[in-house]
Amino acid sequence: MRLFTVDAFTGAAFQGNPAAVCLLDSAAPEEWMQSVAAEMRLSETAYLIGNSLRWFTPAVEVSLCGHATLATAHVLYSTGAATGPLHFETKGGILTVNQATDGLIIMDFPAKEVTPATVPEGLEKALGAKVLSAHRNQFDLLLELESDAAVASLTPDIPALSKVDVRGVIVTAQADAERDADYVSRFFAPRVGVPEDPVTGSAHCALAPYWSARLGRPHLTGTQLSARGGTIQTTTRGDRVDLAGHAVTILSGNLHI
């Protein structure tokens, strides 16, 4: 069994979102996969068996993950194990991935549009920031703040956020003019074992259509303002979203258990 760690949504090592990628020769027990993910202690560990792709946080299995999908495709392309389009079978449906000539990896994901929601009681206190508007979808709560700076400066109460009954809390704002981006975000998911995710592809399945509707353009760039930081190019196409980024392999070796 080959095991890799890959920094996703970045072109430089030690930035973006690290994911573990495990290439399996045969099916493995869920308990074992969860144990390996807990051992890796990254926000996601991906397991690939043929075309079947699954993702585990240190605490639970999830049904949609962007950065670990990008990391898996990067491993296959960079090792020569695959060329051309990839079609991953996942709990979130069939995900098609391709690679451009410059190494940019483009992933076709389902759009996860949000609808207006009320701000849960105590949430603004937990964030330490004023919420302009709240929306949600089947996974997450999306909160728009008043400025880029408000998103960047958040120091939320993570235990308090874990009481919000959603997979994660997306916090976003329009990017400042000096940024090479259209919108900024951060993502907190303590209920699934990820206090703050460095760069979150699945959150951009909601962010892309949200900001495309606001800004009137399908092609946008999102920057996630975690300590590591990362960039996702997004294209909204009706009920689908293209998520694009680069990745860098950090480690590779064999799993001996």
Description of the structure:
- The chain is an alpha+beta fold and 257 residues long.
- It has two domains: 2-108 and 243-254, Diaminopimelate Epimerase, Chain A, domain 1 (Roll), CATH 3.10.310; 115-238, Diaminopimelate Epimerase, Chain A, domain 1 (Roll), CATH 3.10.310.
- The chain is built from six helices and 18 strands.
- The chain has helices at residues 30-40, 67-78, 123-127, 148-152, 158-161, 201-215, and strands at residues 2-8, 17-23, 45-49, 52-56, 61-62, 86-90, 93-99, 105-110, 115-117, 131-136, 140-145, 168-174, 183-189, 194-197, 219-224, 230-237, 240-245, 247-254.
- Strand 1 and strand 2 (17-23) form a beta hairpin.
- The termini are close together.
- The model has no long low-confidence stretch (mean pLDDT 96).
**Helix and strand succession?**
EEHEEEHEEEEHEEHHEEEHEEEE
Mean pLDDT: 96
Uncertain runs: none
Count up the domains.
2
Per CATH, the class of the largest domain reads Alpha Beta
CATH architecture designation of the largest domain: Roll
The shape, in one word, is: globular
Helical region count?
A: 6
Taking all Cα atoms into account, the compactness measure Rg is 17 Å
What percentage of residues falls in helices of 4 or more residues? 10-25%
CATH superfamily of the largest domain: Diaminopimelate Epimerase, Chain A, domain 1
Number of strands: 18
Strand content: 35-45%
Give the terminus-to-terminus CA distance. 9 Å
Structural class: alpha+beta
What do we call the CATH topology of the largest domain?
Diaminopimelate Epimerase, Chain A, domain 1
Main beta-sheet strand count, sense and barrel state:
12 strands, mixed
